[in-house]
Amino acid sequence: MIETPRPPDRTAPRETRLRALDGLRLVAALMVAAYHYGGRGGEVTTAWGSSPKDQFPTLSGYFAYGCLGVQVFFVISGFVICMSGWGRPLKSFFASRASRLLPAYWVAVVLVTAVFALPMVAFKAVAPSDALVNMTMLQQPLGVDRVLGVCWTLWAEVRFYALFALCVVLPGASRRRVIMFCAGWTLAAAIAQASREPLLDIVLMPEYAPFFIGGVGLYLVHRDRRDVYAWGIVAVSFLIGQHYAVRSLWNAADPNAFAHRTTLGIVLVVAFGFLAVTAIALGWLNRVNWRWLTVAGALTYPFYLVHEHLGWVVIHALHIGLGLPSAETFALTVASMLLLAWLMNRYVEKPLTPKLRSALAKAR
Prior knowledge:
The protein has about 375 residues and is an all-alpha fold. It is built from 16 helices and no strands.
């Protein structure tokens, strides 16, 4: 079927750097860091020497919502992947994604493994064989211990990339094809949820699909704000996405929960993610065009990779080793992880990403 040409869209934007999107990435990463440092129990308790609830009696309840930064990331990812895959051949798309993810990821795996292997560090390193498997990014489906706790989100991202590449990039991106991809994935994910078939659940990711799909729909809005189908995709994705977020994170009935998130609080944070990307898609935040936001966006990925596990080590050293107060320890830990992220971006990503992209693009 030949797609009927549409009249020129005067609202279709020129593809320029959306610096507000870079800033939102960093906000989402800081949300996750707040959750990992002060909004949950587990191994971070060892780092602080006591529960983060004791360190942050008031803020810990708010930090518990920081885990929803992941859902915000997924909405951003849907927007960005649709934008970067539009009009790009499959090999170029693959080269772009692989070169973007792998260099910093490999270095983060090596760094965390090496630091955790030090005798003075209180946290246990994974087995050498498991650490090697982690270099493939396939440790999650293979059931191997993870070096990076956050890498489960990368496994979700990789599956999204594969679906988008096969269904949209390979045949060639068009408005109709993207709409069919979003509608088809939404329906298939609902069927997967109803069928309780593990294979379908792995491939279609019902719990996370609405956020990726919502981001894709918002890119269509970015191209044409009058596109009713695009707005429909965004609305349906939000409605389904908030349901999954509430179902998985509302824990008021659990007496052992670290913090009791409210249904309203979860829905509001999910709404924030969708509304923030919507504002960027519509151009409402075009004035937020400060150059430092590009740097913030560049630091987000390496920061996200290293902040949790290496942050534990820094928290323990500052709070237990040096006796610094909780607030100062929290701030200095975030700052040190941002500094490490800058070093990784400057000395790993900037030199290696273009070389890897070029090599993969030229390979036959």
